[in-house]
Design goal:
Low-confidence stretches: none
Helix content: 25-40%
Distance between the termini: 27 Å
Strand content: 25-35%
Structural class: alpha/beta
Number of helices: 4
Strand order of the largest sheet: 1-2-3-4-5-6
Largest sheet: 6 strands, mixed
Shape: globular
Mean pLDDT: 89
Length: 148
């Protein structure tokens, strides 16, 4: 990805010490890249998303590349929290668009499809098979109002 210098923000591990998510921030693009790993549960997804939201206030990103291609698992139990707690907060903090790279795991895809359907009326979001196409779409999004 050619976005300028990235800052590695966080390497988050799951409750068993395995990699859960890596967060990279690209300030020139106002982009947070979250690369998820392993078998996801609702609890782990909520914990991972809370970490990313925590950084939003300090880093002022408005675009998210949510990469779940290296994951498996059914994390649907996190969907109500994502829709009713995370989404309004993220929009209030200036999130403009999300590119979503699906996992090849079918259980994970079902949860991801439900998430995308719930978020789409409120946020620019598109689904991709690879991070390169996802990034190209994100960078083509029109600039929004300056984040507060």
């Amino acid at each position: 990805m050619l976005l300028g210098l990235a800052t590695n923000i966080l390497h988050l591990e799951d409750s068993h010490g395995a990699a859960l998510a890596d967060y990279e921030f690209y300030p020139d693009a106002e982009l947070m890249y979250v690369h998820w790993h392993g078998h996801l549960t609702g609890t782990e997804v909520i914990r991972g998303v809370e970490q990313g939201t925590h950084w939003r206030d300090q880093l002022r990103y408005s675009l998210v590349l949510n990469d779940k291609r290296d994951t498996s698992g059914d994390w649907r139990e996190a969907l109500p929290w994502l829709q009713y707690e995370w989404l309004p907060r993220a929009l209030g903090l200036g999130l403009r668009a999300m590119a979503y790279v699906f996992s090849p795991d079918r259980e994970n895809q079902f949860a991801s499809q439900e998430f995308v359907a719930a978020v789409r009326p409120h946020l620019e979001i598109e689904v991709f098979d690879n991070p390169e196409d996802a990034l190209a779409w994100l960078l083509a999004q029109p600039a929004g109002p300056a984040a507060s």
